[in-house]
Amino acid sequence: MAQKTTTNPDGDRYNPKRVYIREDMIAATSVLQIRASEIRQTQINWQSYLQSQMITQRDHDYIVNLDQRGQKNLPDQNPETCADVFLNLITHISKDNTIQYILVLIDDILSEDKSRVKIFRESRHGSVWQPFLNLLNRQDEFVQHMTARIIAKLACWHSSLMEKSDLHFYLSWLKDQLKMNNNDYIQSVARCLQMMLRVDEYRFAFLSVDGISTLLSILASRVNFQVQYQLVFCLWVLTFNPLLAEKMNKFNAIPILADILSDSVKEKVTRIVLAVFRNLIEKPEDHQVAKEHCIAMVQCKVLKQLSILEQKRSDDEDIMNDVDFLNERLQASVQDLSSFDQYATEVKSGRLEWSPVHKSAKFWRENAARLNERGQELLRTLVHLLEKSRDPVVLAVACYDVGEYVRHYPRGKHIIEQLGGKQRVMYLLSHEDPNVRYEALLAVQKLMVHNWEYLGKQLEKEQIDKQTGGTAVGAKA
Question: What is the rounded CA–CA span in Å between residue 322 and residue 468?
Answer without folding.
Answer: 73
